[in-house]
Amino acid sequence: MKPRITIEKENNGQDSDKEALEKLKQGKAALLWRKRITDIDTPVGVMLRAHQSGRGDFLLESVEGGSNRGRYSFIGLAPDLVFKAVGDKAEINRNWLQNHDDFSPVEGDSLTAMRQLVASCQMDIPSELPSSISSLVGYFSYETVGLVEKLPKPKFDPLNVPDMLFVRPTLFLVFDQVTDALYMIAPVWPDGAGSPEEKVATALEVIQNITDILKEPIPSLPAVKVDQLPEIKRAMPPKAYEDIVVQAKEYIKAGDIFQIVPAQRFTVDFPLPPMALYRSLRRINPSPFLYFLDFPGFSLVGSSPEILVKLQDGEVTIRPLAGTRPRGRNSFEDQTLRESLLKDPKERAEHLMLLDLGRNDVGRVSQAGSVKVTDSFSIEYYSHVMHVVSNVVGKIRPDKDALDALFAGFPAGTVSGAPKVRACEIIAELEPETRGPYSGGVGYFSPNGDMDSCIVLRTAILKDGVLHIKAGAGIVADSDPASEQRECEAKAGALIAAAQDAFTQNDILLKQSAKA
After folding, report:
1. What DSSP string runs through 468-513?
2. How much is the pTM?
3. Active-site residue numbers?
4. Which domain holds residue 487?
């Protein structure tokens, strides 16, 4: 008798049509999806084919430990809903694909409106799909802290972008780098016009459309003629920042604060497509949080090393990152700088203060006795700097949700100071302009109630052909103003190097075009 081979039929999402239809008829949201195996479609390649500039599309990737690519990457396309807020006034556009200007005011304050939106986007995630699917993706600016703490009114705003902006994609792509699976996911919602059958049919069209796009060749980014490399400009001269450090030390000496993180802004003219910067940045400074968020009128391109707050399976995580040295030219110099960093009393004191603050922030929303430090005083390496990091976790209380967890740790002590509220007050006094997205948070809310966010660090805001970079340094009692100025420059270095690389790649494209 010959042996028989039994091949089980894999669920590639065909059953999701019927399940989505049934849930819609019950007034519930659902996920309609398809799975395909592909080892040739990369997140960047798909983004180049499917992305439409200024539509609200996004790309999220991850590199852990400086060299290990994260398992999942995410693309969101063609949002049907956009939420934005300035101060305590929020607006929502539920007709985004047809009319980008069709915003309506939302009753109540911005945080209440955001909480209601997050709740309205909850749904069951099929067991066959990765749990890290997101229903809303966007950012909170640093100034959002004014919604939960009474702070001086913001000063000059050089960027003029919303304090909060989140999008809900009609198509969500998940790349599994381990199994080479690509999940194409189209959420369907019970609200809005159309019958359940029509909504399922529309979702199927969305998936078919991306399937067709994946068959197309990958286009090159358009080359732009640039006569010379733009110069790096400073929003304030080095002496002005050093004076801020001196004033901050006076507050520390007076006992107002123990530590504070003043920031400054650098700009570079950047006429190239924002995606060109992202492609260079992800190679030059691979980080745990890589993101490209492309909104109408401006884009966020970042490679943040630091969690803001994470909520997964009921566990809250904050991972303080404080204490910095530049990278060495070789492994020997790296080791020497690492030992110097870990032995530096100033850096250790700064990190310990922020580790204690992280414990306190996690404890604000966690069950009694559940807060633990699971990693302390480790070193993580990035392209231009190395950092001291620790990790704090706690079990969230039953009466708290993802937004509670987020704002328990917002803004992070590593970008504000300690005590946090007083540090924020002094930042408002000393810094001459608003921070905008810098030192706020980029992240996503999942349909199952989870949330993941990072601090907006090593991030460029591209608007009107100008690249804006902000960087700060942690100030304690014995800080040296000139050294803190150099630390800001080192932190901004990754973005500046990425911009320079993008111009180099653009020049190569121009030469290739001239030969063609």
Report:
1. EEEEE--B-TT--HHHHHHHHHHHHHHHHHHHHHHHHHHHHHHHHH
2. 0.92
3. 387, 414, 438, 458, 474
4. 232-515
